[in-house]
Amino acid sequence: MHYSEIKRIKVLNNKNFNNDGKYILYYMSKSIREEFNYALEFAVKLSNEYLKPLIVYFPITDYYKFSNLRYYKFMIEGVIRAKKLIEERGIKFVIEKTQQAPYQKIIKKLEEIFCLILEKGYLKYQRYVNNLLADKINASVFEIENDVVIPIELVSKKQESYARNIRSKIYDYLNFFLKPIVKYDPIIKSKNYEFNFNELNFEKVDEYLNILDIDKSVKPTNYFIGGEDQADKNLKIFIENKIFKYKKLRSDPTVDYQSNLSPYLHFGQISPVKICLEVLKNYPLKDENVQSFFNELIVWRELARNFCFYNKDYNQYEGIPNWAKKTLEEHKSDKREYLYSLEEFENAKTHDKYWNAAQLEMLKTGKMHNYMRMYWCKKIIEWTIDPKEAFNIACYLNDKYELDGRDPNGYAGISWCFGSFDRAFKERKILGKVRYMSSEGLKRKFEINKYIEKVNSL
What is the pTM of this model? Predict the structure, then answer.
């Protein structure tokens, strides 16, 4: 193991290996992939060292909020692909349905587990689960940071207010962490071992979806198909056809020069390290387009994880800076020219054709162009009577419809629209000193009516 892999490993408790345990359990929760999976390779390494069979465990449940058809279809497409690739290495991959929180299933098997491998999460519930399992299980528990290029606690021990605060630190570490992953061949081929699990071995996505009591009203999208093979296709298209114009055109919603990798990153179906290495096979690090892309993929994405890790109110209005709360509160009584209900927002029934197009893009495809996300959220503030209510509406819509919702990127992006990671501007009505965006600005920057045409043609 090299430096970049060792620094991703954290021991969550001071317990020894459970010598009576039958197997090593890797609870796959966020990194649904075989390739460039540091948690998987660490688990295989331990399996080889201690000659214990490895089980990769993926419980499916309808327990969670926003368990809907759109998310689950995309996720399960990825699970089926990951299972196939991992089993080709001779490793047992268990899919099991649970009516309860998945961690409760794991706790019931604690006597059987030699050691437990977990993936580091940055959201409150993810951290709660990992710490609970570390406390309950009488065996060593390891947490692997699999979702970032550089471990966030290595970059900073506190919440950072601006991207500029971590950009130089990230680039100081970049050469150490942009390394090919070390892969291990498992000595014990556990694939055909029998253990005490109620395994599901369906081959089709619909077979899994049919046994889940989830919201069927949020329909799947045909624009994104789950799985690391599909992520690789999008990455190849981006490198071959888009990145050479990324800096100039990434913010233009009338064209498609974004990577379209955010859904795959959210579900862990591709590693950000792999993305970087593939880009650098084709372009030098100093290329202005690579710099622009890495600023989004590494600096801003990992700033979002810093924000959620160190700010307990990351998905609430209370988590924005004090100056922003103060100025928004001072302007709560300002007259709004338009006011809309959640239902009107959700159904794209505002007076603003650009805002409606952005909402429709999200409803149709499961993803909204990043520049339009900013405009979309700013206008929710402007057209809602209370800024706290506006924050909650933005989170609700983002988490319900975006394939990359329920993610640090989304919460940090919404918080940016409310003043986080930003400075105060000239004071105006409603938004106070928080940055303002206008439809006139869209018209000046882009041929914005082409965006409406693009969305209408979807």
Answer: 0.97
